[in-house]
């Protein structure tokens, strides 16, 4: 059974946050971290989403304590910790990992040791999730636990993946890509229910101080402040170019992307809405996709539609024309380089990639822009290159969205099942009650001896009536 | 409208095309796209810088012929940046900053109309602008954040300009016209506070750039307003 009951809220921490975090940290190290812990997981590849799932699965069977050790920063006093020797073992590999910054941040939690009890682990995760300020620096700390100066690791909530991509949402994809580029040790929660995110929208970043940021640009700015800066090596001129090209993307390409996925009827019905409806839990999938569509439509109208839209089609044509131009410009700017500014990816690459790859990968029934993009060979190569390099796991998986967020889904399942059973029972009870009350069905407490005669009487009555 | 015609005017001047500025109260309604400014040539009406540039190009005048593909891409990108940041910031200041709205904008916008139309139209326009701001994510920005964005944009422009006389080579292009137009407006328009123009003045090369263009192309207007 799932430990601890249904997680309604990520803050209540039943999620395998620790698990995910561990993977995140470990991955950031980019070192062959604790091989023993690795071997426990079926998937050796360092992908957060895979790790999430695996960590979660394993959590149930006497949770790999190493997972927790790595994940939780010290000072999670709530954990009933067991002795350190094992912790120190783990501490070795994980803190030994490079990322001076990681070591500096003391993220590898030395003190969090093997606690096989999931509820406590869950509690610890809760501790992580909710009480940042109170780092357990109080007496709850077991001896030897390092008091971590940094608060809990950052958590990123984003839309889950589909169509062969790590995420189906543009903003989530951009932020995810950026974090992969910089190797920021985030716990990534891929969910398909925006109401579960701390800010109500996705993507959302919960920082170490508990603050929640939901504007993608601000998320990236925050990551930069935390020294995960992909633009560190850029010259001033390149930084200026970044700003300029991001504006270009926003003005020219974004409206068309919105139009392609949300406004174009065929695409919306067959691709977008289908995915969201399947991914979201009941009953959200009944109204949320529609609501999102209305929001996007309004946004699109405001973005470009002070035009008297004399003609929807003309407007559309114009938009697509500009988008094609924009794609061509991007292609010209990229040339034959690997990334926009040389050999290392920068934040501009994250944004461009997220815009392009959505267009490239999704199987759109009416993809006029897609055709144009496919004709720009260097952009296609660019996208596949980044996808295979930074999201190897996600490329390999093209299963329906249902299977991907196995973590959150299995957690929701008992809750959902329970809901379903309850609703069926309630329906039955209502029907039976109504039937009884209105006399359609009546309960006769007749003794067996009298039953036949009662029946005979009943039949006789029927005959009479006829 | 008091702000928005500088870029287009600058562009036309740079192309050596004679242009006469006419102010009309119903300019927005006359324009085919609802946006001002627009040019009226013969029996054609073209609005917004992009289409104006295309139109002029079709007539045989162009400023960006000498650029290669990569430079053209950069030029377009920077133009979008300016549109995105500077134009929106100007709009924000004009319509979403309460001090400016109350003191300057409402009065100016409604001045051609009799009461109560002046108030109604002004409020309507304000509401429209606020809605647009919200849609692009500027709805919750404070004045300081907007000023910071302007600063960032100016920094990018300044870095791109460097020590060159114009953004690309020695000849002005549409980008120069656009940047000049906006910066000139920011520097010369009287607002309730000088913060916006101060931000621009921080970058000496941008200031020099504006002065240079003003002297070169607008010297017939008499003494430059940029001192």
Rg of chain A, alpha carbons: 28 Å
Question: Which overall shape of chain A is indicated by the principal axes computed on the Cα atoms?
Answer: globular
Let me know the largest β-sheet of chain B. 2 strands, antiparallel
**What's the overall average pLDDT of chain A, rounded?**
68
Strand share of the residues of chain B?
A: under 5%
- How many angstroms separate the termini of chain B? 24 Å
How many E strands of chain B? Answer: 2
Strand order within the widest beta sheet of chain B: 1-2
Runs of chain A with pLDDT <50, length 5+?
A: 1-139, 144-149, 397-406
- Average pLDDT of chain B: 78
How are the strands ordered across the major sheet of chain A? 2-1-3-4
Structural class of chain B: mainly alpha
**Largest interface by Cβ-Cβ < 8 Å:** A-B, 28 and 31 residues
Write down the overall geometry of chain B: globular
How many angstroms does the end-to-end distance of chain A come to? 59 Å
Q: Which strand-content bin applies to the residues of chain A?
A: under 5%
Sketch the major β-sheet of chain A.
4 strands, mixed
Percentage of residues in helical conformation of chain A:
55-70%
Number of strands of chain A: 4
Structure notes:
The complex is a heterodimer of chains A (466) and B (227). Helices cover 58% and strands 3% of the residues of chain A. Chain A is mainly alpha-helical and 466 residues long. Chain A has a 4-stranded mixed beta sheet. In chain A, a hairpin with a 5-residue loop joins strand 3 (204-206) and strand 4 (212-213). The longest helix of chain A is centred in the C-terminal third of the chain and has 33 residues, at 406-438. Chain B is mainly α. Chain B has 10 helices and 2 strands. Chain B has helices at residues 6-14, 27-30, 49-58, 69-95, 98-110, 117-135, 143-161, 174-188, 195-201, 204-217; strands at residues 38-41, 44-47. A two-stranded antiparallel ribbon of chain B has the order 1-2. In chain B, a hairpin with a 2-residue loop joins strand 1 and strand 2 (44-47). In chain B, helix 4 (69-95) packs antiparallel against helix 7 and helix 7 (143-161) packs parallel to helix 9 (195-201). Chain A binds chain B through residues 215, 236-237, 239-241, 243-245, 247-248, 250-252, 298-299, 302-303, 306-308, 325-326, 329-330, 332-333, 335, and chain B through 32-35, 69-70, 72-74, 76-78, 80-81, 83-85, 128, 131-132, 135-137, 152-153, 155-157, 159-160, 162. Chain B: Keywords: Acetylation, Membrane, Mitochondrion, Mitochondrion outer membrane, Protein transport, Transport. Chain B: Its main location: mitochondrion. Chain B: Involved in transport of proteins into the mitochondrion. Chain B: It is found in: Mitochondrion outer membrane. Chain B: Belongs to the metaxin family.
